Amino acid sequence: MITLKTIISRRTLVRIISFSVAIIAVLAAADIVYMCRLSRAESSIEYGYQEAVEELAQSADKISATLTKGLYASSPQMMQKLSSELLSEATNAKNALTKLPVATSNLEKTEKFLSQIGNYAYSLSASAADGSTPSYEDYEIMSTLCDNASAFSDELWSLKSKLLSNDKSISELFSELEDGGESFLTDSLSTVEEGFENTPKLIYDGPFSDHILEKSSLMLENAEEISEDEAREIAAKYCGLESYQLKTAEYTEEGTMPSYRFTADGVSCSVTKNGGYVCYMLRRQAVRTANLTSEEAVESAKTYLENLGIEDMRETYYETYNGVCTVNFAYEQDGVTCYTDLIKVAVALDDGEITGYDARGFLMNHIEREISEPTLSETECQGDLSPMLSVTSSGLAIIPTDSVEEKLCYEYKCQSTDGRTVLVYVNTETGEEEDILILLETEGSVLTV
Fold first, then answer.
1. Quick check: pTM over 0.70?
2. Rounded to whole angstroms, how far apart are CA atoms 158 and 117?
């Protein structure tokens, strides 16, 4: 016989079970949330460590490049500029080093090297401010520091690759290192430290431009505004399509260069409202096996510009990446290369099709200039170049500066004593070095740093 007491007991039991299940579910959910948060936190930490190694390697790259430029600098003004860059990158590298979970005792020589770089840069800057030029001993020190920085960079990039391919987390690997364990990490850091054995003892007192797209275009401001249909006809010519194939994008581009934007299957093109100039054209394409050389791609790019009626452009540098060769062209006026007026053309190496066109640098800067006669002669300026350089060719060039000004310079293409190709730009009025670039010529690319 089921009594009232039995019914109450059963109800109580059901309630207890229900509450228990609910509590277990809540705890399980909380545990899942906690584990997810913990996983995200661990992933964030791991990413931070990977980023720190990459930042350290990038700073080492820049330190090496800046020191190399210092070998070819001869004026106090240029040395002061390079010293400032060197000090900044040494500081960035030390900051990245502090983000790694490793005791500074394990990287004592690395930290000392970066401190030496910073202090030496400060010393050079102070000497340059007094009008002093580097001594031959300074050049020797810079050469040794440059070699060490380059080896440092190579080892760090190798370390980053090993960290990414290892099954263990970076935190675990560094913990093993701190506990005295042996791993590739121990060997890598030992190699980094050993690389600074030959760092010289330093004696000193004390312990082309991204700005060119930020100004207003003189070329466009007084140009007549065109209609959307007119812009579509112009875009079709650059894309190699019929105008009806191009659709107007949902938004137009404003800013310093207001433009109409058109799209087709895999193609995007922007045309300025004032003047009807093509800003850029991009075509998505799965590039297959390369059939063309970089030199043939350069010729295809030149032909493309000629067919568009764009004249007086001279190819300067080019880069091949992922089956596409991108060629830089600079405007030439009366024999003077205007590096401010740039057009880039991308060519697919499988079939020679034009996959990209970017004229924003040209549209922002191009005007017919009144180029004045140089105050100083080419010979006078050449006489002040670094003794480590031999001039192989020279000419006039207009270059952009960080202050968005243009400078007329002699462009000296030089060969260094260690076999590098170096470009030095000397102001034709003041005789001061305005910039130094190192030419990197590899298979498929000619670039500068």
1. no
2. 22
